[in-house]
Amino acid sequence: MPSDSAVRIVWIYPDLLSTYGDQGNVLILEQRARRRGIPVETVHVRSADPVPDSGDIYLIGGGEDRPQILAAERLRRDGGLARAIDRGAALLAVCAGYQIMGSTFGGEEGQPVAGIGLLDIESTRGPARAVGELAAEVDTGLGGHILSGFENHMGVTRLGPGVRPLSRTIVGTGNGDGTEGCHAGKIVGTYLHGPALARNHWLADVFLGWVTGPLAPLDDAWHERLRAERLKAVLPA
Amino acid sequence: MTQLPLRAQLASALGRTAATLSRVTGRGDGSVIGGRVGLILEPDLLRRLAADRKLVLVSATNGKTTTTRLITSALQELGEVATNAFGANMPAGHVSALSQSKQAPLAVLEVDEKYLPEVLATTGAGVACLMNLSRDQMDRAAEIWLLAQKWRRALAAKNTHVVANCDDPLVTWGAATAGQVTWVSCGQPWKEDSWCCPECGGPLDRKGDDWACRECTFRRPEPAWVLDDDAVVDPRGRRWVLDLRLPGRANRANAAMSLAVAEVFGLPVEQALPRLREVTSVAGRYTMVERDGRSLRLLLAKNPAGWLEAFEVADPALPIILSVNAQGPDGRDTSWLWDVDYRVLRGRPVYVTGERRLDLALRLDVADVPFRLCDTFEQAVGELPPGRVDVIANYTAFQRIRAEFGRAL
């Protein structure tokens, strides 16, 4: 049983949606909590099992079209994630997982598939695959950072009035309209895998801070060096 | 061999000339350019060159080059074998390989898994050897569930005898439409891409190598051949200790597949197995090289499943150099590093290099694996004490190390 002081992380459906190193987001959150002396309890929930609604931070990753459709169906039937969000849990949804959180997304033939409606977004299949490095200026509501990562998707996502863009793209495609990702309450959606938190450790701390309050600083040398190298490689001089 | 039509003969000859020019001018080994020239002059060249030969296509995410080599070695018992030994595994490479051995009655072709349907359709190969499918170079490779679906369609349309690894659910699904299949149980250490049923999406229940869908009838077929630790059990129940020169579990699996393919060609284990034992290194892989008193063993690992197999070969008592690049052939996305469990390296001296060493450094830091960051491979070697060392590198990082020690490897 989870102890009251531990941060409870729930990784949703690694058997369907963990194609792009999504485990990395889990590992980075765990490490950043532990290095601060905060206990962590992580649950990996396979798609045949119920999603517990008692977690603090939920993570869902990227994957192929067919597993994405299966995951959306199962999440809707299960209802655990929606209950957790209602009671104030945080969610990081990546790529296919991001699209699932909206009202609809494009299936393997471009057909509209119903999402689970936790974010006011709708996604369709774009004309070409967006593959490559992405850099974007983050919405100041979450801190004045540059988002750095890798995208690989065919989605075009339209943001409704119920969400704010996570960032404005400098390099890369993102949502397809000059923005990348979105956030609303404690839900953050992004097309960045790679995983997103490796080069955006500040975002990991946004999530941990939502659960625990103010956080002690860490030695972020390896994150910073990688981030600086990648941004130098992709940002215009 | 029947005589090729004049146009095909000319195309084939000019292709070989281009290949020779490529080699003598030091631009490459010639196996791609020669085929390209040939295919431009005669688009039907591959079909014509493949006609009237006994052909086996070898495809998988991992182990293609080595298994192609093992099968080639075995089939040489039966006669001359044409093969694309250098891993040029798309149609241009196939044309080049077949052009260079025009009289060979047998051919063993390594085929990129995306190209398998096309090459199968073009060549009408009699045999296909299918080993494993897992995530690989995600920024450009096809999604593997989709890939297996294409294999199914291609095999349903042909009369090809498939030899397939039944421990891999996705390979089993991809191969199951073939008219005739010889199932081989040769293991699947990397299971992260097959927890769900390829047929219906339901959960797969797995116990050891066995698996079955909880929701539909799709389940592991009964194998005819079984890899059992260091031995292969043939369809008659006879156990053959492999005793290969190539190291590791993955190569024992490659050997099990090769023996099953050899038998489809009528070559019994007692004749095939000694030939497999003659193979010591494949395109530089598993080679030992010497540098200033250090003996380096070179292991190639291109994706999470490959790293898992490489860790199985690496000696826990030795220091290890890891080198990672992210050029085109490697995939420009390094996210796969997060799918590899590096904790197995705790306690070894670990040296990190390659163009994307900072990605790897962060990955190891998060896994709590201490390491030394080195700007170059030479620096890493220089910091090691004399003695044996394991080296694991991904594709272009491996080629770069290999080039340094000479292509003779």
UniProtKB/TrEMBL annotation, chain A:
Signal peptide: none
Pathway: Cell wall biogenesis; peptidoglycan biosynthesis
EC id: 6.3.5.13, 3.5.1.2
Residues annotated as domain CobB/CobQ-like glutamine amidotransferase: 8-200
Coiled coil: none
Keywords: Cell shape, Cell wall biogenesis/degradation, Glutamine amidotransferase, Hydrolase, Ligase, Peptidoglycan synthesis
Positions bound to substrate: 129
Keyword Disulfide bond (UniProt): no
Protein function: The lipid II isoglutaminyl synthase complex catalyzes the formation of alpha-D-isoglutamine in the cell wall lipid II stem peptide. The GatD subunit catalyzes the hydrolysis of glutamine to glutamate and ammonia. The resulting ammonia molecule is channeled to the active site of MurT.
Descriptive protein name: Lipid II isoglutaminyl synthase (glutamine-hydrolyzing) subunit GatD
The species this protein was found in: Sphaerisporangium rufum
Lineage per the UniProt record: Bacteria, Bacillati, Actinomycetota, Actinomycetes, Streptosporangiales
Record gene name: gatD
UniProtKB/TrEMBL annotation, chain B:
Gene3D superfamilies (UniProt xref): Mur-like, catalytic domain
Catalytic activity: beta-D-GlcNAc-(1->4)-Mur2Ac(oyl-L-Ala-gamma-D-Glu-L-Lys-D-Ala-D-Ala)-di-trans,octa-cis-undecaprenyl diphosphate + ATP = beta-D-GlcNAc-(1->4)-Mur2Ac(oyl-L-Ala-gamma-D-O-P-Glu-L-Lys-D-Ala-D-Ala)-di-trans,octa-cis-undecaprenyl diphosphate + ADP; beta-D-GlcNAc-(1->4)-Mur2Ac(oyl-L-Ala-gamma-D-O-P-Glu-L-Lys-D-Ala-D-Ala)-di-trans,octa-cis-undecaprenyl diphosphate + NH4(+) = beta-D-GlcNAc-(1->4)-Mur2Ac(oyl-L-Ala-D-isoglutaminyl-L-Lys-D-Ala-D-Ala)-di-trans,octa-cis-undecaprenyl diphosphate + phosphate + H(+); beta-D-GlcNAc-(1->4)-Mur2Ac(oyl-L-Ala-gamma-D-Glu-L-Lys-D-Ala-D-Ala)-di-trans,octa-cis-undecaprenyl diphosphate + L-glutamine + ATP + H2O = beta-D-GlcNAc-(1->4)-Mur2Ac(oyl-L-Ala-D-isoglutaminyl-L-Lys-D-Ala-D-Ala)-di-trans,octa-cis-undecaprenyl diphosphate + L-glutamate + ADP + phosphate + H(+)
Mur ligase central domain segment(s): 61-169
Biochemical pathway: Cell wall biogenesis; peptidoglycan biosynthesis
This enzyme's EC code(s): 6.3.5.13
Residue ranges occupied by any Lipid II isoglutaminyl synthase (glutamine-hydrolyzing) subunit MurT C-terminal domain in the UniProt entry: 300-397
Listed SUPFAM superfamilies: MurD-like peptide ligases, catalytic domain (SSF53623)
Alphabetical UniProt keywords: ATP-binding, Cell shape, Cell wall biogenesis/degradation, Ligase, Metal-binding, Nucleotide-binding, Peptidoglycan synthesis, Zinc
Positions of the catalytic residues: 333
Top EC class, one word: ligase
GO molecular function: acid-amino acid ligase activity; ATP binding; carbon-nitrogen ligase activity on lipid II; zinc ion binding
GO annotation, biological process: cell wall organization; peptidoglycan biosynthetic process; regulation of cell shape
Keyword ATP-binding found: yes
Binding site for Zn(2+): 197, 200, 213, 216
Assembly description: Forms a heterodimer with GatD.
Function: The lipid II isoglutaminyl synthase complex catalyzes the formation of alpha-D-isoglutamine in the cell wall lipid II stem peptide. The MurT subunit catalyzes the ATP-dependent amidation of D-glutamate residue of lipid II, converting it to an isoglutamine residue.
PANTHER family per record: LIPID II ISOGLUTAMINYL SYNTHASE (GLUTAMINE-HYDROLYZING) SUBUNIT MURT, MUR LIGASE FAMILY MEMBER
Family: Belongs to the MurCDEF family. MurT subfamily.
Protein name per its UniProtKB record: Lipid II isoglutaminyl synthase (glutamine-hydrolyzing) subunit MurT
Species for this entry: Sphaerisporangium rufum
